[in-house]
From TrEMBL:
Native organism: Dehalobacterium formicoaceticum
Lineage top rank: taxon: Bacteria
Name assigned to this protein: Aspartate carbamoyltransferase
Domain Aspartate/ornithine carbamoyltransferase Asp/Orn-binding: 170-319
InterPro entries reported for this sequence: Asp/Orn_carbamoyltranf_P-bd, Asp/Orn_carbamoylTrfase, Asp/Orn_carbamoylTrfase_sf, Asp_carbamoyltransf, Asp_carbamoyltransf_Asp/Orn-bd
Alphabetized GO MF terms: aspartate carbamoyltransferase activity
Keywords annotated in UniProt: Pyrimidine biosynthesis, Transferase
Quaternary structure annotation from Swiss-Prot or TrEMBL: Heterododecamer (2C3:3R2) of six catalytic PyrB chains organized as two trimers (C3), and six regulatory PyrI chains organized as three dimers (R2).
Length: 325
């Protein structure tokens, strides 16, 4: 930790106070550095078995209207590890707050919950919901994933994982593979990689290509982007292989999902083509896109990646509520 991450400075910390975390485009490199340093600070405190009270007396509302294991539990654990408390809604599996089921708008519901909590984390299947919640709330709102839109905290924990594994992000070649159309994680991640000037390989079946406006924006910003449909080619050049699940739940027609679900599988045979030292990331959950045999590959870091979500989300919660002591 000490080697990689510096102690965050007071003026850097202050710049986050009361900020919403909605999308990757809102971040500058120095903001990411502050989050990484703060995450490193908290990881070290937890390694040292310290009891942390930075958010004692504060409350986080966890509003998850789509299934989540990692994002929800890591945010809730983050809040508890920081000494704070969590409130949530019992009806999340119905994708509704009870009041919205009765016809209340999300804005009204958020205005109410804003009076109970110091920070709100929201996941919703509709792209743009986190933005609408942020407009209604006085406290900071954190986007925990909105439809096929953005998932910025996942992107930040991915950057943290790469920094820990490779010591840097600058100058790396990153291959993003799989469902680049519906996967919101990669939509956030490419903005972060663009800040670091990474070369990008986008490898997907034709039907799951990255939305063209995202590719256009990257190229307009001077980023070297190669779009291919070969997993083998992606692996040969990548320092980081970022694998994504085909997002069955976002396909309008199930038959279209069935046509593409088994096209990109990372297995040991494929890894024989890999560049020395390549690491494999995946936001999880995985279905079949990474064979189980790959878990023993030394660069398979997806479970560590999920664990890193705790430190990064501790940093984000503490930063936006002005709680880092
Ligand atoms: N990576 C991710 O967002 O996982 P969950 O859907 O379990 O939160």
């Amino acid at each position: 930790m000490a080697v990689l991450f510096k102690k965050p400075q007071q003026e850097q910390l202050a710049s986050f106070f009361n900020k919403d975390i909605l999308n990757a485009a809102q971040f500058r490199l120095e903001d990411i550095e502050t989050i990484m340093n703060t995450a490193g600070h908290y990881e070290q405190l937890l390694i040292d078995k310290k009891v942390i009270k930075d958010m004692e007396g504060k409350v986080m509302a966890a509003l998850f209207f789509e299934p989540s294991t990692r994002t929800r539990l890591s945010f809730e654990t983050a809040m508890l590890r920081l000494g704070g408390a969590v409130i949530t809604v019992a009806e999340s599996e119905t994708n509704q707050i009870s009041s919205t089921a009765k016809g209340e708008t999300i804005q009204d519901a958020i205005s109410v919950i804003d009076g109970y909590a110091d920070v709100i984390v929201i996941r919703n299947p509709v792209t743009g919901t986190a933005d609408r919640a942020a407009q209604a709330a006085l406290h900071p709102v954190i986007n925990g994933g909105d439809g096929s839109g953005q998932h910025p905290t996942q992107g930040l924990l991915d950057i943290y994982t790469i920094m820990k594994a490779k010591g840097r992000v600058e100058g790396l070649t990153i291959a993003l593979v799989g469902d680049l159309k519906y996967g919101r994680t990669v939509h956030s991640l490419v903005d972060f990689f663009a800040l670091y000037g990474c070369d990008l390989i986008l490898a997907s079946p034709e039907a799951l290509k990255m939305p063209p406006e995202i590719v256009r924006n990257l190229r307009a910003g001077g980023i070297n982007v190669k779009e291919i449909d070969s997993l083998k080619e992606a692996v040969a050049d990548a320092d980081v292989l970022y694998v994504t699940r085909v997002q069955k739940e976002r396909f309008p027609i199930v038959a279209e999902y069935d046509q593409v679900k088994d096209l990109f599988i990372v297995d040991q045979d494929l890894l024989r083509e890999a560049k020395e030292g390549m690491i494999i990331l995946h936001p999880l959950p995985r279905v079949n896109e990474i064979a189980l045999e790959v878990d023993s590959y030394p660069g398979a870091l997806y479970f560590q990646q999920a664990h890193n979500g705790l430190f990064v989300r501790m940093a984000i919660l503490a930063l936006v509520t002005g709680s880092v002591l």
